[in-house]
Amino acid sequence: MSDQRKQILQMLAEGKITADEAEQLIAALDREQSESAPPRASDRAKPSPKYLRVTVNPVSSRGSGPGQVNVRVPLQLLRAGVKLASLVPAPVIGHANEELRRSGLPFDLSQLKPDQLETLIEHLGDMTIDVEQPDVQVKIFVE
Fold it and tell me: pLDDT tens for residues 58-71?
């Protein structure tokens, strides 16, 4: 029991305040303590994600498909990569984009911006991307 509660009960016992007044003081004290109390674990926001995870698992054990893959990339590395990409000269980015296209990834590195990466990370925090094919199951998520 807090000292303030004890004081209220002491004043009530001594007849300095009525029972109704004591009840009002205790209710006010409870409101004040609930407003200043630290949030409970269930009220706190989720911690910000630190890793991008990509897992690939074979659906069947026939051995003809790809093996199991479990990649965990620190998001700080992705953030740094996006910032570094903005420092690369345009002709070099053009060559990199061409190589990506030849490899089957039609991706334009000049279009990737840090705020877009943060938005993607924020949305991935609330969802998991599942890709199911006949041979494998792919999951992409942040943790």
Answer: 876 655 555 688 88
Residue type, 87: L
- Which structural domain, as residue segments, surrounds residue 102? 51-142
Do 62 and 130 belong to one domain? Answer: yes
Judge contact between 88 and 101, C-beta under 8 A.
Answer: no
Q: How far is CA 39 from the centre of its chain?
A: 18
Domain count of the chain? 2
Residues 55/69, Cβ–Cβ less than 8 Å: yes
CB-CB neighbours of 3 under 10 Å: 7
* Residues present in the chain in total: 143
> Do residues 68 and 31 both lie within one domain?
no
Phi-psi region of 109 (alpha: psi -120 to 50; beta: other; left: phi over 0): alpha
- Output the pLDDT for position 33: 75
121, 73, 128, 112: CA torsion to nearest 10? 40
Is the pLDDT reported for residue 8 higher than 60?
yes
Question: The tokens of 101 are what?
Answer: 């296209």
**What pLDDT is recorded for position 42?**
54
